[in-house]
Every structure is written in C-alpha cells, then in structure tokens.
Specification:
- By secondary structure, this protein is mainly beta.
- The protein has three domains: 139 residues, no CATH class; 212 residues, YVTN repeat-like/Quinoprotein amine dehydrogenase (Methylamine Dehydrogenase, Chain H); 149 residues, Glucose Oxidase, domain 1 (3-Layer(bba) Sandwich).
- 7% of the residues lie in helices and 41% in strands.
- The chain contains five helices and 36 strands.
- The strands form nine sheets. It has an eight-stranded mixed sheet, sandwiched between helices. A five-stranded mixed sheet has the order 13-14-15-16-28, with no helix packed on it. A four-stranded antiparallel sheet has the order 2-3-5-6, with no helix packed on it.
- The longest helix has 11 residues.
- The two termini are 27 Å apart.
- The model has no long low-confidence stretch (mean pLDDT 93).
C-alpha cells in the first residue's frame, strides 16, 4: 500500500499466495544490510489451507521497489516433524526478522512442533539457513507454572526481537507458559533472562466482576515500550466461558470445549452417563444403548474424525481423554469441528471416570501413546455433569522489564469483556495485539477485535485508557502498527471485515 497520503492509501502491488497456502500474522518489512544483501525485504509466513497443494515455511521478497516485489525464497523452514523427514516445510503461524549488523535473522513459529522457537539466518535472503531450535519449557523449566492446573497449553505463538543495551533481546509469547525474555545476541546460544507467571486468581475478573476464577493464560503477543523499561503483553481469549465437571461419585474435574463444536451458554449444563469407545478412528463403535457421552482416547487420528465417528454411532456428546507421553497427560485444548458437544480432559480424569485408582503421572509422562489401559471398549463409567461459567475475555498486562520473574504492575480490560451480559452476541471482546509508540514512552496502541481500536498510557505504573475508536456498525480489528509521516505519528490497523484503517491520536 502507498500511504504517503495517509488519508488516501492505495494499493500498488499484490503478492499472490500459492494455491493451498495462506499468509497470517507477522507480516513485516525491514531493511537489512549484510555482505550478501542490502535493501528492503518483506517476510511472511505460510499456513496450509489445502494439504495436497499447500506448503509451509517462510517467504522473503525484495521490496526495495515496493511496486515490484521480487521473490527471493518461498516455503523455507523446518522440514521435520518430531525428527521424521518430509519434503515440505512445517506450517508456520508467524515470523519476526531483525538486522543484527553483518548478519540478519528471522524467528518463526512452528505450528507442527508447537514448543519450538526456530531461528533462521537470512543474511543471504536467497539462501536462508535454519541455525537453532529451542523447546523453551524443556530448556528453561522455570517458565512452567505448577498451578493453576489449567495452564498447560504451552507452545510458541508470537515473538519480537529488539536491541537493548547493545544486546539482541527476544520476547517470546509462549501461551500458558507466559512471556519469556531471552538474550539471542548469539542466536545459537540463547540464554534465559526472564519470564512471567499468571496470577492464581484472574485479576480483571476479580476487580471488575467480583468473580474468583483461575486465569486462562493465553500469552499471545508482547512488545517492549520505547525506552524498554516496560513490557506490554496481550492475552488472547476467544471464549468467555469455562467449564466445571463433576461425577456422580463426588469427584470434580476441569474440562475444555472443542474449538468448533457446540458451546454451553453461561449457566447451562449437560449431564449423562459415559461409555468408553477407544480411539474412535473408525465407525465400528459400540452402540450408545441410552448412554449420552462417548469417552474417547486421544491419538492415531484427528479429533474431527473421532467426533464424526462418535456422532455417527449415535452418541449425543464426547469426552476426549489425553494420551501418554511427554506431550500428553494434562488438560489440553482441542482444535476440532463437529455438531455435537465435545470436551477434552486430562488423562487422570479419564482413569477416574472408570474408577481406576492406579493413575501415575510420572509414568504417564514417560510412557508410550496408548488408549486407557485396563478399560474395555464398551465399558460404562460414571455419570458426569459439565456446567459452563463466565470467565471473561482476554486482556492486557503491564510488566516491569526486569530479569528473573517479571514484576506485574497492572492489568487492563475493557468493561464489557468482564461483564457476563456480553458473554455472547457482541463479538470477540478480547485484545489481539499491541504496538508501542516509538516517540512517546508511555503510550501503546491496541487492536481489540470487536472492542475496536484502543489507546492506553502508562500513568504512575498503571494502564489508563486515553482514546478509542469503534466505527458505526462495529469493528473486528486484528493487526496494528505505528509509523511516522512528516513528523506525525500514525497508526495502521487492519479490520477483518472492512480492511485498512489509518489513525492519528491527538491527546
């Protein structure tokens, strides 16, 4: 886009995505100056939307002449999944690149190896090289919280790198692992500097709604402020509800709703008896016989295949139990499509539903992937009740940029995000991402989905809203970035329904 006249932006070039692949978060242009290349490049990611034709990895384009972008490399990335070679690079969700003097690097978010932080040398952007892979929760176990118990979806989601004090400092958004700060001055020898912990009780839900619930985690995106003395972080949360589970023998448990299956409204419940159906990877399942819930073991086939087969067998709902192995055992989120309610639970809950008392978490973590041992297919279990409760939408954190455990100074949420009246029907009321002002140290701009475009300032180490914009008919803001033009600070924001907006904030 040509934005020299900010009031009249116009398209000057278009880069066609390859069939079966789509760009997403982290589109970025920067100048690099290395012995192999000098000029402006655009980096972007690839996520597959058609398996047979799509590819993953990163793309780099020469945009020194913006009206004529030239591909330098497409589809480069990590080409292994759990050590098994394949031809195409793994899908990546986001990318961030930086110039480090004689070298230039990019860090990518690997969808297929979730905990990985992959670093690529792009000093010669025509011949990138994968130089480092870090599984942060394995390399730096201090980032993992023992409680609350629901904070177990630990994976790399987003990342920025900034030169601070002559060092290259990486800020990784690691979902339920929190926000992690690393020194990547030598990208092949990343060192731990700091990380955040989520509070035991959700601070915004307690402050605004008087409700005492565990936070959801969901460390989505973070930025350093202009002077690097603070970190602003955005937790993304698309669901305003949580689930409580109970059994007829008095046990209680935590469950999560599948992403693309029917959700329970606040206060609603679903109850019924259970039957174990194994992996449910084919249609030869035991008949319900009046049982409502099929209990399914995770593994072998996709969640969507499992839920489809359960539904075809005549069950009204499903509970998927986690598997053994280092990536299993605990609570987990489930990306799935289906027309019946589907819930995920940790492995110990699956044992308890069939009154098994021999669950061993250490053995589970060290074990191989298998269905629930000692439970026969067709065996009936406890009667369960799942009840939905309000737990708010995603919100903003303010941290002091210290080493060790980051000191949290404040949090911020728009009022509607903590009001049960807006649990449904008003769009997504979560923050998505932040962009720090490059000229005013205490000012930050936010894309807030249906909450619009928001401007916050840090005043006395508290987050204070000083401006907002919501268009007639509403907004769905996703991306946000700051730029300067003729001495004016302007902000570009992308709306998923209406396209590009450009703002100027005037105090």
């Amino acid at each position: 886009m040509d934005i020299r006249d900010a009031a009249k932006p116009k398209e000057v070039a278009f880069i066609q995505a390859k069939e079966g692949s789509a760009p997403g978060e982290g589109i970025q242009a920067l100048t690099i100056d290395t012995p192999a290349f000098k000029g402006d490049v655009l980096v972007s990611n690839n996520e597959k939307c058609k398996d047979k034709t799509g590819f993953g990895g990163l793309n780099i384009y020469d945009v020194s002449k913006p009206s004529s972008p030239t591909p330098l490399v497409e589809g480069f990335g990590d080409s292994t999944v759990a050590g098994q070679g394949k031809k195409a690079a793994n899908d990546i969700h986001s990318i961030f690149a930086w110039d480090a003097g004689s070298k230039a690097y990019a860090v990518i978010v690997d969808n297929e190896e979730g905990p990985d932080v992959d670093i690529v040398d792009i000093s010669n952007p025509k011949k990138p090289t994968l130089i480092a892979e870090y599984d942060l929760d394995a390399a730096f176990p201090q980032i993992v919280q023992a409680s609350p118990r629901n904070l177990v979806e630990i994976f790399h989601h987003d990342v920025v790198v900034k030169e601070i004090g002559g060092r290259q400092i990486m800020l990784v958004s690691y979902w339920d692992g929190g926000y992690v700060k690393l020194d990547v001055t030598d990208p092949t020898r990343a060192t731990y500097l700091a990380d955040s912990d989520f509070a035991t009780v959700d601070p915004q839900l307690l402050e605004q709604a008087g409700l005492s619930e565990a936070p959801e985690g969901n460390a989505h995106e973070a930025e350093f402020t202009k002077n690097s003395d603070y970190i602003i972080a955005a937790d993304e949360d698309f669901s305003s509800t949580g689930l409580r589970g109970t059994t007829d023998d008095g046990a209680s448990f935590v469950a999560a709703t599948g992403s693309g299956t029917p959700h329970l409204d606040v206060g609603d419940s679903i109850s019924g008896s259970t039957r174990y159906v194994g992996l449910a990877c084919d249609t030869a399942l035991p008949e319900p016989g009046g049982v409502k819930f099929a209990v399914v073991a995770r593994g072998t086939c996709t969640f969507t295949e499992k839920i489809t087969n359960v539904q075809l067998a005549g069950y009204e709902a499903a509970i998927v139990v986690n598997r053994e192995g280092a990536d299993g055992c605990g609570p987990f989120g489930m990306s799935v499509d289906g027309t019946i309610p589907a819930f995920s639970v940790e492995r110990s809950v699956g044992f308890g539903l069939f009154d098994k008392t021999d669950y061993d978490n250490a053995a589970c973590l060290a074990g191989i992937v298998e269905p629930i041992p000692g439970v026969a297919i067709g065996q009936t279990g406890d009667t369960v009740t799942l009840t939905s409760f309000f737990d708010g939408w995603g919100y903003v954190h303010l941290f002091r940029n210290n080493n060790g455990k980051l000191q949290e100074l404040d949090t911020f949420a728009i009022p509607e995000a903590m009001d049960p009246e807006y649990a449904e029907g008003a769009g997504d009321l979560s923050v998505h991402e932040a962009a720090a002002s490059p000229s005013v140290n205490n000012r930050i701009y936010f894309s807030y989905y249906s909450g619009g475009f928001r401007v916050l300032e840090i005043q006395n180490e508290k987050l204070v809203e000083v401006g907002r914009f919501i268009d007639q008919g509403g907004n769905d803001f996703w991306g946000v970035q700051v730029f300067s033009q003729g001495g004016r600070e302007l902000v570009a924001a992308s709306d998923m329904d209406y396209g590009l907006y450009i703002f100027e904030y005037t105090p």
